[in-house]
Predict the 3D structure of the following.
Amino acid sequence: MQKRTNSIDRLKQKSYDDMQRNNLMTHRVSPRRRIRMIGRVCGWVTMALALVTLLTGYGITQYRIVDPLTFGILNKAMAQRLHAYTDVPFLIFMLSHVGIVLWWRMSPSNPKE
């Protein structure tokens, strides 16, 4: 009987440890940190979209150079289509990144880094 209680106690302790670990994992990052992390992701996405926009813009004007360099994937028609589709997401991500960074810098509770 003693052996059985020890295994039950171990299971209870294990589930309690799992609950504590999950609780720590969900509350580890503060909301300010999450917003800052979203701002950084928006910045990286903005940079990637800017590079795609530059590449497709160059592909529209210099399609004879870009077509062989991209192994025929980015021809003139595809470059025009992608160039037209990347401007709105670029603006959305750029404005959200700038807004988050300005909010972070101007908030009074900004911890010194």
Notes: The longest helix spans residues 31-61. The radius of gyration is 25 Å. Residues 46 and 92 are 9 Å apart (CA to CA).
